Amino acid sequence: MASMETAAEHERILREIESTDSNCIGPTLRSVYDGQEHGLFVEKLDMRIRNHDREIEKMCNHHFQGFVDSITELLKVRGEAQKLKSQVTETNKHLQDDGKVLITSMEELQQCRVQQRNIATTIDKLSHCLPVLEMYSRLQEQMRLKRYYPALRTLEQLEQTCLPRAGQYRFCSIMAENIPKLRTQIRDTAMTQLRDFLESIRKHSEKIGETAIRQAQLQRSMDSSISSKPRALIGRRGRKEAAALTGAGTDSGGPGGSPASEQDSGILDVEEEGEEDEVPGAQDLVDFSPVYSCLHIYTVLGLRDVFENYYRKQRRKQARLVLQPHSNMHETLEGYRRYFNQIVGFFVVEDHVLHTTHGLVNRAYVEELWELALSKIVAALRTHSSYCDDPDLVLDLKNLIVLFADTLQGYGFPVSQLFDMLLEIREQYGEILLKRWNIAFRQVLDQDNFSPIPVSTEEEFRHYTSLFPLQDPELEKLPFPKKLPFSEFVPKVYCQLKEFIYACLKYSEDLHLSSTEVDDMIRKSTNLLLTRTLSHCLHYAIKKKNVGLAELVQVIINTTHLEQCCQFLEEFISNITNVPPDMANATKLYGTSTFKDARHAAEAEIYTNINAKIDQFLQLADYDWLTAVQGGGTVAASDYLVDLIAFLNSTFSVFTNLPGKVAQTACMSACKHISTSLMQLLLDPEIRQISMGALHQLNADVKECESFARAGPVAGFQGDTLLLAFSDLRQLLELFTEWDWSTYLADYGKSTCKYLRVNPHTALVLLEKMKETSRKNNVFAQFRKTDRDRQKLIDTVIKQLRNLIAQHHA
Asked: For bias kind Polar residues, which ranges apply (predicted)?
C-alpha cells in the first residue's frame, strides 16, 4: 500500500518536472530529497528519460528526409545569400557615400532647428520681460517727473500683471523687492506735498479770501438782471451747479474717475477765454493737485481713512489759528479785513474740496467747522467792536461784515447769526452816534450868539430857508434887511438831525431788513437823540452859568421853531424809508415833547433869573424901621425899588417875541416875588421893632410897584389882574396905616371884608413889633397921654387878635 502511494507521488513529481519551468524545479526536487525513497525516484527518473529519448529518436527518424532536403536548400540559399550580401554591401557603400552629404545637411538643419527654437524661446521670454523693463523705465520717468499717482498705477500694473508673466529672473526679484519701497516713497512724498500745500494755503488764505470777497462785491454791483440770479451761483460753484443742472459731468477732478494725468487732477475748472464776462473764482488761485494726488495715492494704497483723518485734523488746527483774532484788531479796519479774508479763504478752500472730491470732507464736517467758526467770529466781533468809539469805523465794519456774510452765504453757509449780531452792534453804533452828536450839539450851542439871524439879501434868506423849513408868510413879505426870529442854532440843529438820520440809514442798508423795520429803527434812534442827547444839551445850555435873560428868551424862540419842524422830520424819514407816516405801527417822534420840555425849562429859568435879579435889588433895601412919620408931603419910593422897576421895564420890553403867556407868567411871577419878598421883609424875625414911619415908606414902595403893574409892562392882562400880586401886602399896609381895626375885626371871615387877604397871625406879628417900638420909643412916652392911649389901643387890638385866632382855631 505504501509502495503504491510512493509510486503515485513519484509520478506526480515527474509530471510536475515536465510541465514546470526549470527555474521553479528546485522545490519539487527538494520534496524528493526530503522523502526516504529518493533512490527509487532516481530509478524512476532514469526510466522516464529513456522513454523520452526513444520518442525523440522515433521523431527524428520520421523527419530525417525532410531535414536533409532542408539542408540541401539551405546550401543553395547560402550562395544566393552571399551574392545578396555583396550587393547589399555595395549598395550600403553607395548609400553611405551619398548619405554623408545628407547627414551633414541634416545636422545643419538640426542645428538650425535648435537655433530657431532658442530664438523663439528667447523672443517669448523677451516679450514678457520687455514690458517689465519698459514699465519700470516709465515708472522711473514718472518718479523723476513727480507724477506719483500715474507712477503708483504703473507700479500696481507692474506688480500684478507684468512681473508674474516675466518669470523668475534676478532683475524681477530686485524689482519685486523695490516695489514696497517705492510705494512707501510715493506715499511719503505725497504726504510731504500735502503738508506743503496745507502750509501754502494757510499763508495764502488771506489772498484767497480777498479775491472771493472782491468777487462777491462785483456780484453785488452788477445790473438788476444779473443780480436777480440766485446769490449761490458765484464763481466756481455757480458754474458747477449750472453744469449739473444741464447734465454736464463735473467729476473729472474727483477721485471717482481716473484722471488722465496729475495735472488734470489738480487744476481747477477755469472758464474759457471766450467767456469774458465771467469772473474767475477765488479758488482758481490755488493748485489743488497735491490734495487730489495724495487722495488718489492713499486710496490706491488702501489708506484713504488715514488720509481723511489726517487732512481733517490738520484743517481743524488751521481753523483754530485762523479764527484767533489779533489783540489789536479793533484799532483799524484793516485788522478786521485781514481777519475776514483769512476766514473766507479757509472756507472757500473747504467748499472747493467738498465739491471736487468724493468724501474727503463731507457736508456734516464743513457745517461742524462753520458752526465752530461762527461762534468764535461772533464772540470776537462782540468783544473787539465794544472797544470802538468811532462811528465811521463801526459803519465800515458793518459794511465789511455784510460783505463777509454775503460772500460766505454765496457758498452755502448760513449767516443769520452774523446779521443778528449786526443788529446788536447797531445798538452800540447808536450810542456812539449819540456821543458824537452830543459833542456836535454842544459845539453848536457854544458857538451860537443867541440872537436873531440878520438877512440882507434874497440869497441869504433862501439859503436859510433851504436849511430849515421856515413857514412864515408875513416874514417873507417884509423888505430887506430883516431878521429871522431864530438864531443860527435852529438851522444847524435841524441839519444835524437830518445828518443823524442819514447816519442811521447808512447802517440799516444791506441788512436785509424791510422798509418798516428800517423806518422803526431810525425813528427809535432819532427819539433817543431828541429825548436824551439834544434834551440834555438844551438843559445844559439853559442851566449854564452866566446865561442872560436875552439868551433864555432866544432859547424859547428857538425851541418853538424846532418844535414846529418835527412834522417835517417825520416826512423826511418817511421819504427816505418809503414808509407812510400814517401807518398804524409807525413810531412817532418825541421831538415835540422834547422841545416843549426844554422851553418849559427855559421859561422856569427865566422866572428864576428874574426873581434872582429881584433878590439882588432887594438886598440893596435899607429901611429905617424906627423912623418917625414925616409930617406933610408925600413919601418918595426907595431908590432900590425905582431901579428895580426900571430893570423890569427894560427886561419885559425884550419879551415881545415870546409867546404872550410866557411874558405874562414872567411878569406875574416877578410881581408876586416882589410882594412876597417885601412881606417876608416885614415879618423877618430879626426885625423886632417897626415904626409907623417905616410902614409909610414901605407903603410908598408898594404904590410904586402898583403903578408899574397898572402901566401894563406886558400886554395881555385883563383889567387889574397884575395888581392882585400886591393885594395881600396892600391890604395889610392899609390896615395899619389907616388903623382900621374895627372894620377888620367886625368883618373878619366875611366874603365882603375889606381886608379879606390879611391873615390875623401876620397882623399880630406886625402889631407886636409896633408895640415894642412904642414901648421903647422914649422914656417919656408914659407921660404923654396920646402915646399911652395908643399903647393901650395896640394892647387891646393884640388881645382881640389873639382871641380871634383862638376862636378861629377852635
From this structure: 215-228
